[in-house]
Amino acid sequence: MIAMEETMNVYRVTDRQEAEKAYPCATETPSPFWADGLPLSRAWFADNLGEYVEGFHLEDEAGQVIGHIYWAPSERALVPYRIEDHVAFIYCEWVQRQHQGRGGMRMLFDTFVEFLRAEGYKGVLVDGTDFEGYMHHSHFAKRGFRVIRESDGGKLMYLPLSQETVSVEPLSSRVTRERKAPVEVLVIGSRFCPVGASAVLAVRKVAQELGDQVAVKEVPATAQTLAQYGVADGIFINGQPRFFGPVTEEQVRKVIQEELSPAH
Questions:
Q1: 75, 77, 208, 213: which could form a disulfide with 89 (CB 3.0–4.6 Å)?
Q2: pTM of the model
Q3: Can you tell me whether residue 67 is helix, strand or coil?
Q4: Alpha-carbon distance 16 to 34, whole Å?
Q5: What CATH number labels 3-170?
Q6: pLDDT tens column, 123-175
Q7: Hey, what CATH topology would domain 183-260 get?
């Protein structure tokens, strides 16, 4: 399925070679500091394509990927919800800033929805954020999504395709401390997005510096992980979720050192 407008194309990601072009959000100029997580994320995407992640890419006239929509069927989506079958869940979407305003996101989304309708999907879910510039709920509301659940920092939204309502049950986080070290870092998934992957690299480096004071446990994002912990993505320090959005190595170091302070 190919859509064309001006000199941009949209195609469905179907093989490893295409997957290795993923995450145009990390290939913009100037390069974001968290782009060091790109190799980890591209490897995860390629390894999990067709199981836990699907995607559509937007490319320019030179064949460079400049935008994306990444998603998964509800039966396999790594999200903290129990969702009825045959509903699409959008993980993330992006068009590079220099190409925004040219209709690329509309092309991506229209092609995506056309595919879903042809496959008989009931509707589309997304976690709209309160952060202007990244997955903001207002952008989805303009496309016909409606809010079905609200929580701190975001809104779960639904776009009906063949079914007006959807059954969604939030999962409860079951992350606890094992008390094997003064600071325990549990990394669940955190490869899907280069932002999260960059934070993982920073955690590894800081933990190596601090030695036995910090214990790091990395758990891959799988359906089994989701069933065990109630989440399939996140970095938890002493049982608490941390690092929402881009973080530098210095920020990671500061948080861990605060946990090591006598006050804790």
A1: 77
A2: 0.93
A3: strand
A4: 23
A5: 3.40.630.30
A6: 999 999 998 878 999 999 999 999 999 987 789 999 999 999 999 999 999 99
A7: Glutaredoxin (3.40.30)
